[in-house]
Design a protein that fits this description.
mainly alpha, 0% strand, globular
């Protein structure tokens, strides 16, 4: 085994500049990817039937569970480690590759049993094909973690956009036009993941190694097992509603629900997932500095409230136009579930930041208990709501999401000693702003409908009005948005100014 080689312990720059700068890169890349996903969804929704989306959605829930189990927390352990040696990297690579092969074989062998559990006999070949994803993802897991640890978020953002555009989008749309049906979605996923894995491996090629050392393995598992428990709980919370809908309401209903959820997820992931991936490695580097953790938590939750609560107002009011214009009239049953789910967009996004704080502070088993509690609430809420149809499931899931976030804040306060009063105050502040924006949008929509404006023109008008108003307030009077608005606007203007100077020089 090669001698240990220490890795950088993390950033030393202030969180205000470095973290928000990295977040802006991930936000920009995530925004581009979200726009691409919405455009691709628009196209695919007119080429494929809801039942085909439902079948693939059911298969992906199985893949997601096995993928979480196969990670066994290796990647977060690499990101969180105060001192990272080459033995850790080599052992992590070997472990993720072996677990990828093992989980692929397990899922392939159980595919028929899983299809019977879902009461979907046509599901078997999709699950068997998706089993390849475990091997592909396992190969790139450690290299992705190394890039996150090194805060190479600009490259990660660009890689994700490229792989989605030339992987999933190009393949899925082309095959759908050629009549491949649900298989176009499956093959698109495989090509996208292959591209992103190749990018990760190439970008981190100088640091990668294959090998195994038991002491390195046990040190990673000690932390990683708690992460895995957390991720399994998160998986159950994110997919229990899919299983209940698929089993009791059928693949067509799951198709409607999964597409509504995909639209919702673009808003939540744009801030939540991107921010979590930036925040976790940054916080891990200051895990013993409680004052900085406190400031990071307050600023993160304030940024989420600033962006997500006003956006929620737009999405709820414009939901019928968003669904019918983007996806077509056959997707009408997805409107009400979308409105209910998107009403708690802030809580769905913010709880990811709370989880990042718990993990970065080493409270992985507390985070796991929290996620399992969330999963239990989603299961109960979805099951109790399913006799009422899709909207009943959406209500149950939304209530569980709100309770989960509030529980997370209590855990952070009790086990880490971080106050939550400031972030709660900012949430109330932006809730008032969101209600004002929602009322204005509702009145504007009612007037536009009364004069005969509808469909795509109505949607464009509402979105343009919202963006212009929000951007005007943001840049002209950022103090309305508090300290977080001032900091974020300064970062945006600073980066735009740098770009303009570069272009002038060229």
């Amino acid at each position: 085994m090669t001698a240990p080689k220490d890795k950088p312990e993390g950033p030393s720059k202030p969180l205000t500049g470095s973290t928000i700068g990295h977040f802006l890169w991930m936000f920009g890349g995530g925004g581009a990817e979200s726009i691409l996903k919405i455009v691709v969804l628009l196209v695919l929704a007119r080429l494929l039937m809801p039942v085909e989306f439902g079948l693939v959605g059911a298969a992906l829930t199985v893949v997601a569970l096995a993928e979480v189990a196969g990670r066994i927390g290796v990647a977060p352990s690499i990101i969180q480690a105060k001192i990272l040696t080459r033995d850790h990297i080599a052992t992590g690579m070997t472990t993720t590759l072996m677990m990828g092969v093992l989980m692929a074989a397990l899922v392939f062998g159980l595919s028929e049993l899983i299809a019977r559990l879902y009461r979907m006999p046509d599901l078997t070949p999709f699950i068997q094909t998706f089993a390849l994803l475990f091997i592909i993802k396992g190969a790139g897991m450690v290299s992705e973690a190394l890039m996150q640890r090194a805060l190479r978020f600009r490259e990660i953002a660009l890689m994700r956009v490229f792989s989605y555009l030339f992987g999933y989008a190009a393949v899925a749309v082309t095959l759908s036009v050629l009549g491949f049906g649900a298989w176009s979605l499956v093959l698109g996923q495989l090509v996208q993941q292959t591209l992103i894995t190749c990018f990760y491996l190439y970008s981190a090629r100088d640091d990668l190694a294959i090998g195994f050392r038991w002491s390195s393995f046990t040190s990673m598992i000690e932390f990683g097992f708690g992460i895995t428990l957390t991720q399994i709980g998160n998986y159950l919370a994110q997919n229990a509603d899919y299983f209940i809908i698929g089993r009791w309401l059928g693949p067509e209903a799951l198709g409607y629900y999964s597409r509504a959820y995909l639209l919702l997820r673009q808003g939540a992931q744009l801030v939540g997932k991107m921010g979590d991936q930036v925040l976790f490695p940054t916080l891990a580097s200051i895990q013993d500095d409680k004052p900085r953790l406190q400031r990071a938590l307050n600023r993160a939750l304030s940024l989420v409230a600033m962006t997500q609560i006003p956006l929620t107002a737009l999405l709820v009011v414009a939901a019928p136009e968003i669904i019918l214009v983007l996806m077509g009239p056959q997707w009408g049953p997805a409107i009400l579930p979308f409105q209910i789910l998107v009403a708690v967009l802030f809580f769905r996004t913010a709880y990811q930041f709370v989880g990042a704080i718990l993990r970065a502070a080493g409270r992985v088993y507390i985070a796991a208990l929290w996620q399992w509690s969330y999963a239990a609430m989603v299961v109960v809420g979805s099951y109790l709501g399913q006799p009422l149809g899709l909207w009943g499931v959406a209500v149950g899931v939304s209530v569980a999401t709100v309770i989960c976030h509030l529980m997370g804040l209590l855990l952070v306060r009790h086990f880490i000693g971080l106050g939550t009063g400031a972030s709660f105050s900012r949430m109330l502040h932006y809730s008032v702003l969101g209600m004002m924006i929602g009322a204005a949008l509702f009145a504007a929509k009612a007037w536009l409908l009364s004069v005969g404006v509808g469909g795509a023109l109505l949607l464009v008008t509402l979105v343009a009005g919202f963006v212009a108003t929000y951007a005007g307030f943001f840049f002209a009077t950022p103090r309305i948005f508090g300290e977080e608005g001032t900091v974020l606007s300064e970062q945006v203007v600073k980066r735009l100014f740098k770009r303009s100077r570069r272009s002038d020089k060229s």
